[in-house]
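Hi support team,

I've been running sequence recovery on a batch of backbones for a student project. Most finish fine, but this one hangs at about 90% for roughly twenty minutes before it completes. I'm not sure whether the input is malformed or the queue is just slow. I've pasted the structure tokens below so you can try to reproduce it. Let me know if you need the job ID as well.

Thanks,
M.K.
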């Protein structure tokens, strides 16, 4: 068998290990083979990458006689007797007497009838829990139990799910040890160049595989985990970075002139200095724009961080070199809002033009949505085709329908569009010869490390600083009906001072009809009770477009004091005079959505408040508390990631991704960034030779085509 081959041969590659069936191991017959394949173990590689769920550190264990009542302890004990009974309310109770030579205690389990069978079939178990005293006897109630067989190592690995498929954790452990022993003569190949391992303090791969299964200390187990998690992340990043470089190589971009006169005029026309974050983002974008390869960059920034300005600077660089710029918004309303905002921002900026008698000409900005029709539309289209339109703002249709650009140089895509390979292809068709540079903007902050994975073939710039002079939004939690009156009191007070308020109705995801009904009900209730003295409007998704617009316009112009709405107001509404946001049933929303909603206030000079109304609190509410504590979208995104538990890539991105078992976006934040750096170095150095071939072979072995397609579908 290959495993037993003579020494002196090349170390085993992962692919070779993947080609050896587990039934080649001693003790794996028909039945075990089937049991193993029930949890996806077919090959020796599958077995070696079936990692322990946790380890029991027996050096930490305590003797029963030394354990103190009221403390949490780890005991390794023998099961002496097991008894099953039915107690009140037909609850099942399993009691076991266990001991370790120094004493004896009882384990009591409620509603776990299967424990009886489990405990009858094992000899030794590790139990972890709080030691209690009950009627003079010492016991643990519902402790964590890990059968460990007769394994005597100091640190015992516990494998996942093994009970369900009738394979004990020590049987798996035994097979793993056998496989490791048989890999010993050749060792396992480590294709990651040693200089990176040294720089990042990562241990050798074979040592890591050995240590994750049979660590001699907990520190060694952690080092092993870190190394193997790095390998998983590196494979993902290699796939993404290679894809990114391929796309870049496949098309030629425009080498823009980044510090010309138009940009200078624009910056000096601004009534305020740029924030540090804006300056940084513009510098990052400029260096992309100057290069011959097309830019594909994500700009992340909280609501109000000043993304528009960065977008406009990007587009003007294109205009400066005689090209055109386009901004795509997700809806017509937002396109119109951007058009008027940007027209205002650029005022009467003039484009330097040596062919013109005056040395310059006015900048031409146009709007193109489905609502622009007739002669107006024909004029815009003609202007795009003959280059007389410099900037066009519109919806996604800009790049899809019969719109011809004379020379499209830069495109900014605003908000949540998945601007992927297909759209890039559409853009390439628009572009005569050169691929325009693309900037995608999003106001939904995702943690940087997640962005590096989810949007892994993009570069990322971050606006993590709000312009000065904003009064931060104060967020308060109103829990239970007793605390609601103060909310409406404040709404009335603010309206008394000439301000306005939003009330967001409970989110009902099951049905839009129910949601609309609840919005109508809320509206009726407030009009006839707490807000009866105010002018209260209603806005929801089932209203006719004209009615929606009328409601929005009346609110914007101040004819309404309060707007009761469903989440349709989440995106893009901008009424600086609104200073109160009340979110009802706030615990039905996620952190990101609440943060997004809250961004609708705090847009003017006045101090703003956001009320999160929930039912009576029956304990801490970490999501609500996080929003009360922080207005920083990036910080909240990190909290969100933490609260979602383990947060492995698998659970945040896509189920069934086979290769990401250890890496966690939460625990391994810095490792993601490091893996990305290493991936860039490896991919960019690749032209010198084929040193990286074994690594890329692992990528194709372990990342399925689906994984890769998913990862690059940015
Ligand atoms: P975003 O699109 O990121 O939500 P905007 O671009 O709409 O934010 O900017 C929000 C507001 O902040 C606008 O009124 C804009 O004029 C203003 N603003 C942008 N940059 C600055 C700055 N550097 N200093 C002061 N105000 C700024
Ligand atoms: Mg914006």
């Amino acid at each position: 068998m290959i495993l037993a081959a003579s020494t002196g041969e090349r170390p085993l590659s992962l692919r070779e290990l993947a080609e050896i069936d587990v039934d080649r191991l001693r003790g794996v017959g028909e039945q075990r083979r089937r049991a193993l394949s029930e949890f996806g173990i077919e090959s020796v590689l599958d077995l070696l990458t079936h990692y322990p769920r946790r380890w029991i550190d027996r050096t930490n264990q305590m003797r029963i006689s030394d354990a103190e009542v009221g403390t949490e302890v780890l005991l390794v004990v023998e099961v002496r007797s097991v008894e099953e009974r039915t107690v009140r309310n037909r609850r099942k109770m399993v009691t076991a007497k266990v001991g370790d030579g120094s004493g004896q205690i009882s384990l009591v389990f409620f509603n776990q009838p299967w424990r009886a069978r489990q405990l009858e079939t094992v000899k030794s178990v590790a139990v972890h829990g709080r030691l209690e005293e009950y009627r003079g006897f010492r016991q643990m109630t519902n402790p964590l139990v890990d059968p460990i067989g007769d394994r005597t190592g100091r640190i015992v690995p516990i494998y996942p799910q093994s009970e369900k498929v009738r394979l004990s954790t020590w049987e798996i452990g035994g097979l793993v040890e056998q496989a490791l022993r048989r890999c010993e003569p050749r060792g396992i190949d480590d294709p990651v160049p040693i200089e990176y391992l040294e720089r990042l303090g990562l241990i050798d791969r074979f040592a890591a595989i050995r240590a994750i299964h049979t660590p001699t200390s907990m520190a060694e187990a952690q080092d092993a985990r870190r190394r193997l998690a790095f390998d998983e992340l590196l494979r993902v990043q290699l796939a993404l970075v290679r894809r990114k470089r391929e796309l870049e190589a496949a098309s030629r971009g425009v080498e823009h002139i980044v510090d010309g006169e138009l940009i200078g005029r624009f910056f000096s026309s601004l009534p305020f200095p740029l924030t540090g974050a804006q300056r940084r983002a513009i510098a990052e974008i400029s260096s992309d724009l100057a290069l011959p390869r097309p830019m594909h960059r994500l700009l992340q920034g909280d609501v109000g961080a000043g993304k528009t300005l960065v977008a406009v600077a990007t587009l003007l660089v294109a205009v400066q070199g005689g090209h055109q710029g386009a901004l795509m918004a997700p809806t017509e309303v937002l396109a119109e809002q951007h058009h008027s905002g940007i027209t205002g921002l650029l005022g009467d900026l003039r484009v330097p033009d040596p062919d013109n008698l005056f040395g310059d000409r006015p900048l031409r900005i146009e709007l193109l949505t489905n609502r622009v029709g007739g002669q107006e539309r024909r004029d815009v289209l003609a202007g795009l085709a003959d280059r007389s339109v410099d900037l066009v703002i519109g919806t996604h249709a800009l790049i899809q329908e019969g719109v011809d650009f004379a020379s499209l140089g830069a495109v900014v895509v605003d908000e949540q569009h998945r601007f992927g390979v297909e759209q890039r292809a559409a853009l390439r068709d628009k572009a005569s010869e050169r691929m325009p540079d693309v900037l995608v903007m999003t106001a939904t902050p995702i943690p940087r490390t997640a962005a590096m994975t989810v949007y892994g073939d993009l570069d990322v710039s971050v606006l993590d600083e709000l312009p000065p002079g904003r009064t931060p939004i104060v967020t308060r939690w109103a829990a239970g009906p007793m605390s609601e009156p103060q909310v409406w009191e404040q709404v009335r007070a603010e309206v008394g001072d000439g301000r306005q308020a939003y009330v967001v109705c409970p989110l009902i995801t099951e049905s839009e009809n129910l949601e609309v009904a609840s919005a109508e009900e809320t509206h009726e209730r407030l009009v006839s009770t707490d807000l009866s003295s105010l002018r209260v409007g209603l806005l929801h998704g089932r209203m006719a477009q004209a009615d929606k617009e009328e409601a929005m316009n009346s609110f914007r112009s101040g004819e309404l004091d309060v707007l009761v709405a469903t989440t349709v107001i989440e995106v893009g509404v901008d009424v600086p005079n609104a200073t109160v946001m009340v979110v009802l049933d706030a615990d039905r929303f996620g952190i990101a959505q609440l943060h997004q909603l809250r961004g609708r206030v705090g847009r003017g000079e006045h101090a703003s408040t956001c009320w999160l109304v929930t039912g009576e609190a029956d304990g801490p509410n970490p999501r609500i508390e996080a929003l009360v504590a922080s207005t920083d979208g990036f910080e909240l995104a990190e909290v969100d990631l933490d609260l979602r538990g383990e947060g492995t890539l698998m659970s945040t991105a896509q189920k069934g991704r086979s290769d990401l078992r250890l890496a966690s976006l939460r625990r391994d934040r810095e490792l993601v960034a490091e893996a990305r750096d290493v991936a860039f170095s490896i991919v960019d150095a690749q032209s010198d030779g084929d040193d990286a071939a074994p690594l890329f072979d692992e990528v194709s072995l372990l990342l399925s085509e689906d994984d890769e397609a998913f990862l690059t579908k940015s």
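--
Follow-up from support: It reproduced on our side and the slowdown came from queue contention, not your input. Residues 272, 274-275, 278, 301, 303-309, 443, 467 surround adenosine-5'-diphosphate (ligand 1) (CB under 6 Å). No action needed from you.
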